[in-house]
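Practice problem 4.
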């Protein structure tokens, strides 16, 4: 509303700026729109030139039909197009563009000029447009048939976006290259070249195709012969009865030959796939798009045969134009399809048939599941060993245990060391897994030995499913250091009643106490006032709601990220050690449980990640990696990160594309070996986060193994200073919430104020 409160139309210039920012969102969108215009104009050669990754200049030249003089004025006006005249034409549109928005929006976001020569003209013309898309200058200009569109200072009219664009330019550039690759693959008989120049330096080729009529040749030109060797052509079959039933298509009369799918996918052999989805391209009627359900299905089927990698995918789905709606989003990458379930059924049936023709690959990826008996052993017992840091904390923790339903016992060493053993029944966890706990009398001495060895082994097994669940139902551990044995619950009750019914012999020290009835009365009044204020405020707000349960790990982690900052860890008070494996801390009125092994492992892992420089072993003969132009550029710009990971290269920037980088040194570490697949993974990670120190997944696995071995183990007794050190370390790393193997490091136990209210 304006100052007068009246609703009025937004002025035309403002509307133009607002809407333009919604059409062109990124460098990728800008280049895509210009390339589509060139292909729509019948070009067989498209040349994209970038300066400083596109921040200074984006220029797209083609040899298409050119622009007729009568269209100079309307070329950049909003919703002016030659592709359709009314809405009904949209059903049959076969060109990339049809809305007449792209050039108009680019005018509003940059300084746009055009040099064009129509096929019927003898001389070209240079056209300059203002930010409203109006032609402000024209002059003769030498040019062969075709059109060149130049964008200078992209997004300069939107200060905030321009600043973000410049700050994230390498990420924008990588996304642009990926989008451009999709047009290179599908645009057969069109030679597409992209180059980039940094400052006054040499112009480097980013990608180039030869203008072949084959999609396979285009893939080879972009990604090299090695990628081609791993591909198989897509072979379409009709959906099987089982899969039709899965999609609810049984008995339905299905249209025949509605979809025709062609293209290439990776073989399912382990090692030929990729570590990420960076080379997956989908097209509908040769239009690049992002069909999320199709993409998800392809990856799911591939993981049935190769669960650790992702496939290369280049698939074109041909369908009648009346069954497709491409007018969904500004970038036209979201598309609605009729009979989508039929398409998915055809795709799934075809892929499974293709991969099943190979040798029994699925058995190589089989992961054995825990038997019910092993699961029984792994969650049956949970012992609690509490080492209070002070007598005050001892009283506080005893109160928490009693309010939380713990049965607390003092063992034979409690008088001297202050240690306590606490036990908690977790019938809900056992019932959830339908696990039966046998009566004590049915357990033999052999069973006890099995259980003890099982507990010791579980300390070295890492599983994301492991949580802070107390795991005992009918048995309690007696935690004497000298021996461990199973104690029936009835014995626990007998011991506890005996301990707490008998008076303890304590030597008392007489201290005079100052007493004032007036002060006592005032104190009682203050307490009543405080309690009344708490009651008036209503129930205490619960900041932590997630339960200690594997199914709520993500919710618990999100709460901790939101509520706990780095500086809070050093403020936490150590209450004690829980079960010789967990540290109990208190922050204001909140109690937390910290896994001593998981948190130490995460800290050690992060230190290895940040500071370790892997040593490389030189190769006898340098190895040509056949990287794509953009991958070569990413590697060259991040050489220091590769060197810290133990990789070294010989760089020849004057060599042809795919031959500029040769591997001369590989990292080695005991039984770990690395190779080109790790280099490709690093390139993918750096293309998304340029300049950020990162490690390949196999290096992270090696660091995780090292960190585990050097960390404090479950079962190790810690004093207060040792526990404090582990807790403070959590505030010195970026993501302290999970260890490298996925185990949670910390969980919220209870809020003492809420407990007292309840």
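Answer key:
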């Amino acid at each position: 509303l304006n100052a007068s409160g009246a609703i009025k139309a937004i002025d035309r210039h403002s509307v133009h700026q607002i809407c333009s920012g919604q059409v062109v969102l990124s460098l990728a969108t800008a280049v895509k729109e210009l390339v589509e215009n060139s292909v729509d104009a019948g070009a067989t050669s498209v040349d994209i030139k970038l300066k400083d990754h596109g921040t200074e200049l984006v220029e797209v030249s083609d040899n298409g039909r050119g622009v007729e003089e009568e269209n100079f004025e309307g070329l950049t006006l909003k919703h002016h197009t030659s592709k359709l005249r009314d809405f009904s034409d949209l059903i049959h549109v076969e060109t990339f563009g049809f809305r007449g928005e792209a050039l108009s929006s680019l005018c509003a976001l940059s300084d746009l000029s055009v040099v064009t020569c129509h096929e019927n003209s003898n001389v070209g013309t240079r056209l300059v447009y203002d930010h409203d898309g109006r032609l402000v200058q024209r002059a003769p200009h030498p040019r062969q048939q075709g059109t060149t569109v130049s964008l200078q200072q992209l997004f300069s009219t939107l200060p905030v976006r321009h600043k973000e664009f410049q700050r994230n330019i390498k990420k924008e550039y990588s996304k642009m290259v990926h989008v451009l690759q999709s047009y290179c693959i599908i645009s057969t008989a069109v030679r597409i070249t992209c180059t980039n120049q940094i400052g006054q330096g040499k112009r480097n080729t980013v990608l180039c195709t030869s203008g072949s009529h084959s999609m396979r040749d285009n893939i080879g030109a972009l990604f090299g012969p090695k990628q081609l060797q791993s591909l198989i052509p897509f072979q379409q079959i009709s959906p099987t009865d089982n899969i039709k039933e899965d999609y609810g298509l049984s008995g339905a009369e299905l249209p025949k030959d509605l979809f025709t799918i062609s293209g290439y996918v990776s073989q399912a052999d382990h090692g030929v796939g990729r570590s990420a989805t960076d080379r997956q391209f989908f097209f509908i009627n040769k239009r690049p798009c992002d069909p999320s359900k199709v993409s998800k299905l392809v990856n799911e089927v591939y993981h049935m045969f190769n669960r650790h990698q992702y496939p290369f995918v280049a698939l074109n789905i041909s369908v009648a134009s009346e069954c497709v709606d491409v007018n969904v989003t500004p970038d036209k990458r979201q598309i609605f399809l009729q009979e989508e379930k039929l398409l998915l059924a055809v795709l799934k049936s075809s892929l499974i048939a293709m991969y099943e023709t190979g040798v029994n690959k699925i058995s190589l990826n089989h992961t054995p599941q825990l038997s019910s008996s092993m699961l029984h052993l792994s969650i049956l017992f949970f012992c609690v060993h509490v080492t209070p840091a002070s007598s005050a904390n001892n009283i506080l923790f005893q109160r928490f245990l009693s309010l939380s339903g713990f049965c607390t016992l003092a063992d034979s060493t409690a008088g001297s060391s202050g240690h306590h053993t606490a036990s908690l029944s977790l019938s809900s966890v056992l019932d959830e897994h339908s696990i039966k706990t046998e009566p004590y009398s049915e357990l033999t001495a052999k069973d006890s030995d099995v259980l003890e060895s099982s507990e010791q082994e579980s300390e070295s097994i890492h599983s994301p499913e492991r949580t802070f669940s107390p795991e005992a139902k009918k048995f309690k551990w007696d935690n004497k250091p000298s021996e461990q044995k199973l104690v029936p619950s009835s014995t626990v009750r007998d011991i506890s009643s005996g301990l707490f019914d008998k008076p303890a012999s304590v030597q008392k020290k007489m201290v005079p106490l100052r007493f004032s009835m007036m002060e006592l009365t005032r104190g009682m009044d203050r307490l009543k006032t405080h309690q009344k204020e708490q009651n008036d405020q209503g129930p205490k707000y619960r900041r932590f709601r997630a339960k200690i349960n594997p199914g709520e790990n993500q919710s618990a982690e999100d709460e901790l990220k939101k509520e706990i900052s780095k500086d809070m860890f050093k403020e936490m008070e150590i209450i004690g050690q829980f079960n010789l494996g967990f540290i109990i801390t208190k922050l204001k009125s909140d109690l937390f449980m910290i896994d001593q092994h998981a948190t130490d492992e995460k800290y050690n892992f992060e230190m290895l990640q940040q500071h370790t420089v892997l040593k490389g072993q030189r190769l006898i003969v340098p190895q040509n990696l056949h990287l794509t132009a953009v991958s070569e550029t990413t590697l060259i710009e991040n050489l220091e990160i590769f060197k810290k990971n133990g990789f070294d290269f010989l760089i020849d920037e004057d060599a042809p594309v795919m031959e500029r980088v040769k591997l001369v040194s590989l990292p080695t570490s005991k039984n770990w070996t690395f190779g080109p697949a790790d280099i490709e993974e690093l390139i993918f990670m750096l293309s998304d986060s340029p300049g950020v120190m990162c490690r390949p997944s196999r290096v992270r696995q090696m660091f995780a193994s090292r960190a585990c071995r050097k960390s404090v183990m479950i079962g190790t007794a810690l004093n207060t200073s040792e526990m404090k050190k582990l807790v403070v370390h959590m505030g010195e790393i970026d993501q302290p919430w999970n260890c490298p193997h996925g185990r949670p490091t910390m969980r919220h136990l209870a809020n003492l104020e809420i407990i007292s209210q309840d």
